[in-house]
Design brief:
By secondary structure, the chain is α+β, with helices and mostly antiparallel strands. The chain is 50% helix and 16% strand. The model has no long low-confidence stretch (mean pLDDT 84).
């Protein structure tokens, strides 16, 4: 029986064991990239980073293992690099930590652990996409209204008829204060009634601009 905690480099690293660990790191990265792309949009650059990052981490850790001088040199080189990141999803940081962990495990020769934890966590990521949550059904609603309209309760009857959930997020003035822009997050009772919902709003806001779109994932921003 294969022991997960048996390192393939326990008796010393060789070319063959390094190549096996490198291949395992790339496989872990590929599995993670596939799981991250499941029912989600990721860029080609992010997918490539997830695939290649475990191999890079494994190689660096394998090189500096037991060599204090080389370790200090690598730390100095990394300190000269400025890392910048754009806002991402909470799911992205899970994928990044996973490939880092897989790379570290492969560097220690624990290929079985790296593959096992990658498969288990990726299965968890895929299963979590099937959990129904309110955020997946929310829509961003932007309504422009004239300053003469009393915005408190102006659309309550429409929201009660067409939505299960409604929350006023922000109010903004525009056009020298002659117009208000209201930003809501809503969950429709029936998406097929979207046109009727907008028509009812138009009757109350003087046929000014109304926009309805998929909600931005603000709560998941890192």
């Amino acid at each position: 029986m294969l022991n997960l905690f048996t390192s393939i480099t326990a008796d010393g690293a060789t070319t063959s064991t390094f190549l096996v660990a490198l291949a395992a790191a790339l496989v872990c990265g590929g599995i993670t990239a596939a799981a991250s792309a499941y029912r989600s949009r990721i860029s080609a650059g992010f997918a490539a980073s997830l695939i290649l990052l475990p191999a890079i981490v494994m190689t660096v850790i394998a090189i500096v293992n037991g060599n204090v001088g080389t370790g200090v040199a690598v730390m100095g080189a990394f300190s000269l690099v400025r890392f910048r990141s754009v806002p991402g999803k909470a799911r992205d940081i899970v994928a990044i930590f996973l490939v880092m962990a897989a790379g570290l495990a492969c560097a220690g020769g624990y290929v079985a652990i790296a593959l096992t934890i990658t498969i288990v966590v990726c299965l968890g990521m895929v299963l979590c996409t099937h959990i129904p949550v309110r955020g997946s059904k929310l829509l961003d609603l932007r309504i422009t209204v004239p300053e003469s309209l009393h915005i408190d309760g102006a659309f309550d009857e429409v929201f009660a008829e067409f939505t299960n959930y409604c929350d006023l997020i922000s109010v903004k003035t525009t056009n020298m204060g002659s117009l208000y822009k209201l930003f809501y997050q809503v969950e429709l009772k029936n998406n097929r009634q979207m046109q009727a919902f907008i028509d009812q709003l138009r009757c109350r806001n003087g046929n000014l601009e109304i926009a309805l779109a998929r909600a931005e994932e603000r709560s998941e921003t890192l």
